[in-house]
Amino acid sequence: MMTDILEKVFWENRVLDYVACLTILIVGVLAIKIFRSIILARLKKLADKTTTAFDDFLVTMFKKNLVPLLYFGVFYLAVRSLTLHPTLSKSIDVLGIVLLTIFAVRFLSSIIQFIIKEYWLKKIRDEKKEKSIQAILPAVRVIIWALAIVFLLDNLGFEISTVIAGLGIGGIAIALAAQAVLKDLFNYFAILFDRPFEVGDFIIIGDYLGTVQHIGIKTTRVRSLGGEQLVFSNSDLTDSRLRNYKRMEKRRVVFKLGVTYQTSHERLKEIPEIITNIIKNVDDAISDRAHFSSFGDFSLVFEVVYYVMSSDYNKYMDIQQRINLAINEEFEKRGIEFAYPTQTLFLTKENKD
Q1: Whose CB has fewer CB within 10 Å in the chain, the N or C terminal residue?
Q2: What is the CATH number of domain 190-244?
Q3: Contact status, residue 340 vs residue 257, Cβ threshold 8 Å
């Protein structure tokens, strides 16, 4: 009697086939439940005891992506044990490919995001730069999804070469229309990875100078010494000769001063030594040379060279001020006069017989 019932056919399948399908489904679900509640739970406890974050990440990814995929796998195996209508069978296959693609993309995106956040951003420790790097993640996800869609269409039987050709023509049109934007975008990545400058650096581009405030996908903003904000396209910066003063280990300073022609020879010989001693007594300043360099139109010119052991412009100005005040004080003590533009007119009187 039972055998007769099991051998009865409904929708091209025996009752026995439906029982087998249900058995596969129940056993599979129970196996996944055991895997999730016991094996994954133990793996999570072991991961919590380690110092690395990668094992915690893998356990989380298995729980979020692998477990749902296993449920579908059990359902797929159970249903495929039955004789199905071709349309229904094709629909289940398509659903399987779609779900597999989605979970693969999610898993790959999560790995890339984890690597960037855990192994790259932690080394930078710069909030503004972190925001710039995180701006890459949407672009990475778009690329991964684009490749995944191409893979999906190929497996669904579409002519990929035709689709790609159509996309290529459209892509060329878009690229020509957005050429400047795309150029700035690629130069943004060049700035990000090559790092010719960073947020907070003092840079000079042509006649413009200031401190970098923000590096964006299309533009970079610089705060000038006058207080206004300068906005450069990323292409302008990468195509220009740029001077980065923040990375300067020491600053070479050259300045000149002039004394009157009435200064005695002995005093002229003392001036280089006076200036050198003044610079030596200033912290973070190293004297290079001081010489009587030339005879000017209205002064005897001395050229002085020294180094400031810092890239900070304000510190350089503080040191220069200290040196100038000390020179002025020493010259006053010795009666040495600074020259200023003057003209002396000599008149000769002719005797008329």
Answers
A1: C
A2: 2.30.30.60
A3: no
User: Which of 45-49, 59-63, 97-101 holds the top average pLDDT?
Assistant: 97-101
Strands, E assignment, 166-322: 202-205, 208-215, 219-224, 229-233, 242-244, 251-259, 285-295, 300-308
Q: Are 345 and 294 in contact (CB under 8 A)?
A: no
Residues 266, 336 contacting (CB under 8 angstroms): no
Name the residue type at position 196.
Answer: P
d(CA 214, CA 157): 47
**What are the structure tokens assigned to 137, written together?**
């993640």
Tell me the domain boundaries of the chain: 2-157, 190-244, 251-334
Contact 22, 78 (CB under 8 A): yes
In this predicted structure, what is the pLDDT of residue 254?
A: 94
* 3 state SS for 259-292: ECCCCCHHHHHHHHHHHHHHHHCCCCEEEEEEEE
List b or e across 245-265, with b for residues whose CB sees 16 or more CB atoms inside 10 angstroms: beeeeebebeeebbbeeebee
CATH code that applies to domain 251-334: 3.30.70.100
Per-residue pLDDT, 124: 57
The pLDDT of residue 274 is 95
CA-atom Rg of the chain in angstroms = 39
pLDDT band at 174 (very low <50, low <70, confident <90, very high): low
Residue 352 — pLDDT band, cuts 50, 70, 90?
low
- Mean pLDDT calculated for residue range 125-132: 57
- Residue 220 predicted with pLDDT over 60: yes
Cβ atoms of 235 and 186 closer than 8 Å = no
The amino acid that residue 318 corresponds to is D
- The rounded distance, in Å, linking the Cα atoms of 92 and 69 is 14
